Amino acid sequence: MSHASAQPLKGPPHIHHMDSVTAYHAAKLGMWLFLATEILLFAVLFTAFAIYRWYNLEEFHAGSHHLNWILGMTNTAVLLFSSFTAALAVDAGQKGNNKAVVKLVGVTIACGAIFLIIKYFEYSSKYHHGYFPGQANYLEFKNFLGLYYCMTGLHALHVIIGMGLLTWVLLKAKKDRFSHDYYTPVEIGALYWHLVDLIWIYLFPLLYLVG
């Protein structure tokens, strides 16, 4: 057997690049499909809200006045800023600047925590004033408050999940895993976080301002 024939066969030099590109597009497509199902879920809730509001207009009008629009607006500003830092994190990841990714993703996670803290105080206020499920005042606005807790509670769950996803991204950035050729987790995490922001942009005026 000749020396040449004993050499292991090697694939084309670009095969690994092709695999990484395929994996990137597959991951991004998968996230977009997942986000589409999340949008459908909230679309059902938005539709239910519109129908119930149509049949209980006075209740929904009065119920919305029991919400603190200042806290709602503050949370809107917090999430908008967090989407900005998430977008900057993607740009830093594309440039391989892992230190910047750590800082920007950390700020985004902190904004998520601030959002949840504000929501906690808002829920606590409802509880102390008797507008929580199982309390007397709740029954007066049960349709409006039921949808309010369902929609904002589900959204808060998405915030928590997004914070977990971004924490995973942050840990990878601390290990200097991202570069010009590999930044998929940063982009996927930012896409999910933008969805969280987008949903709240619809929830805020629908719940706090329309009434």
Walkthrough of the structure:
This protein has 211 residues and is an all-alpha fold. It has a single domain (34-209), classed as Up-down Bundle (Four Helix Bundle (Hemerythrin (Met), subunit A)). Helices cover 82% and strands 0% of the residues. It contains eight helices and no strands. The protein has helices at 3-6, 15-55, 57-64, 69-94, 98-128, 136-140, 142-174, 184-209. Helix 5 (98-128) packs antiparallel against helix 7 and helix 7 (142-174) packs antiparallel against helix 8 (184-209). It is elongated and about 55 Å long. It starts with a helix and ends with a helix.
- Element-by-element helix/strand order: HHHHHHHH
Instruction: Find the structural class using helix and strand composition.
Output: mainly alpha
- Please give the alpha-carbon distance between the first and last residues: 85 Å
CATH architecture: Up-down Bundle
Roughly what is the average pLDDT, rounded to an integer?
88
Low-confidence stretches: 1-19
- The CATH topology comes to Four Helix Bundle (Hemerythrin (Met), subunit A)
Annotation, overall tally of beta strands: 0
Q: Give the fraction of residues assigned to helices.
A: over 70%
Number of domains: 1
The CATH homologous superfamily: Cytochrome c oxidase, subunit III, four-helix bundle
The CATH class assignment is Mainly Alpha
How many helical stretches? 8
Give a quick account of the main beta sheet: strands, pairing sense, barrel closure.
none
